[in-house]
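Bit of a strange request maybe. I'm writing a small parser for structure token strings and I need a real example to test against, not something I typed by hand. Could someone generate the tokens for this chain?
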Amino acid sequence: MSLTNTSSSLSNSSIEKRWRRATEEPAWLRLSLILIALAFLGLFLVLPLIVVLYSAFSQGLSAWQAAVTEPDALAAIRLTLLVVIIVVPANMVFGVATAWAVAKFEFRGKSVLISLIDMPFAISPVVVGLIFVVMFGSQGWLGPWLYEHDLKILYAVPGIVIVIIFGTLPFIARELIPLMQQQGKEEEEASLTLGANGWKTFWYVTLPNIKWGLIYGVILCNARAMGEFGAVAVVSGRIRGETNTMPLHIEVLYNEYMFTAAFAVSSLLTGLALVTIAIKSAVKWNDERRQRIAAA
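Reply from user aminoacidic:
Good idea to test on real output. This should exercise your parser:
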């Protein structure tokens, strides 16, 4: 019996030593990997941000202010924010409902639904724009009917909203589906067993468990909605001061050799993305602080 225990302990010890050797890499290798990661981030993330900010303010604050407050720029900013206000809540509702259906229920066509959610990742944004031109254009499937009823989709805000909803559709759902599948449905079933209705179960059980995945999905959806270019360029008509979003307005300025103005609007778009990340960080920090206080 003692020989068996001794051999078992020796076997466990050798396994532990091999595991340590496999995970504790030499210092030079760890340092090399860290330097490679920092160099990559510096080259492809930090350096472009520095270039944008430097070019935006190279002519002074007055030039930057003039570029972002001229009428066409203000129209582009308003349109971009309007699109975000519509698209993000719509995709939140769709993402949460779809993730709940996929993670909590079994039904026919489930794999087809998951494949359809991923479709915007596989289709080029320009192709997406062409698809909606074929659908809503004057010679398209629904074009004549829309014209008869004086409904304008293309070269107007509705067309821009539709293509951006299509392009941003997977982000929230794809963040929540694996999270909900990992958590299972035992807590929801227990809540319903104790007498809570569906809404209370979602609000007090499901939502607290998925809130960080939801926030990350909203951030990705928001960033893509503000920065979408290809599909919007096809369906918007690029009408200056009316259907140009911020990315389209930046292209117009750059093509007209107004580089300082283009970088000024770019810096504003970058700032909006950074504000979104800052809000997420603040919410997370506040939640962690509340948890520490409650634990104490």
